Fold this sequence. Notes:
seven-stranded parallel β-sheet; 14 helices; Rossmann fold; alpha/beta; about 375 residues; 2 domains; single chain
Amino acid sequence: MSLKIVIACGGTGGHLFPGIAVAQAAQARGHEVRVLISEKNIDALASEGHDQLRFEKIAAIAMPPVLSLRMVKFLWRCWRTTAACKKLLRDFGADAVLGMGGFTSLPPLYAGRKLKLPTLLHESNAIPGKSNLLSARFCDLVLLGLGECASYFPKARTSVVGTPLREALRAPVDRQEAAAFFGMDPQRPVLLVMGGSQGARGVNETVLSVIPQLDPQSLQIIHLTGPQEFNAVQAAYRAFPHRSHVAPFCQRMEYAYALATLCISRAGASSLTELSAFGLPTILIPYPHAAEDHQTKNAEVFTRAHAALMVQERDLSTGRLLNMIQDLLTHEEARRNLQSNMRNLSPANSAELVCTVIEELCAEPRFGRK
């Protein structure tokens, strides 16, 4: 059975990258795919290098408070985007709509429900945001990255599938090749710092205060700043003697993960999935303004499994972060334990599981696809 599948994702890397992974898996199974992304610059950056996929932009905005005057604009834009999505689904001849989360998913899912198509939502976090709680009302099935999230959808049909991982992150990586890509020595430790697609000023500033106390002869640094923080962080690194690579974003994350000895990261579900696939020892600093504090909930899943360390940004200091980095660098057994526990939390075939669920849903008698 060959299907035409629309995948709505974007707004953040945590939505877009898993959507790309499902699109790649669906194409490999003979399905035709359209990937809907937002108008944000991060989506344009992240979609580069995926020429085999067809991306289309749709307008989407976050939902303001219910009693806010901005609600009128939100409803108007949702209505207009939903109408555009209906036309796109009809013109494409879509058989199913998958939303990967966030308000980029809401209009396509609502349009799919109105057209009586199979609709699915993927929630990768341990606790859902308000957009996914709303979108779930228009879905036949809610797919979960973490089983802990099921209790938040008591009226929905759910299935735990993990969070999909892109093809490039599932292939073996040569460390020498990865080192050459970043201009680094493959024999020396590497600290990977990831600010996330929304940036991380508090994390970036603390890391910059720690670097002068780290030996430049024994540690190299890859610092991914997020687009908003790039210029300031890049300027700061000019004063450091450390071998480093500073960028707003990285198109070859498989190289970064393969080369890194340890990582400092936010706790978005997509990043956690990638980190666990590579078994990378990580210090998690949850984004404090994430909806429903879901990044803390995500991080807690990993700390309970002894797969990562966590420190809240409000508790972050130069001394504390320095001690955590040095402890991980000097205690190889601790790193090995984290690596092992990290890998146990990553289902390698999540993208294929999602495709299988879509196929099974479309084959149900009520949708008439055999």
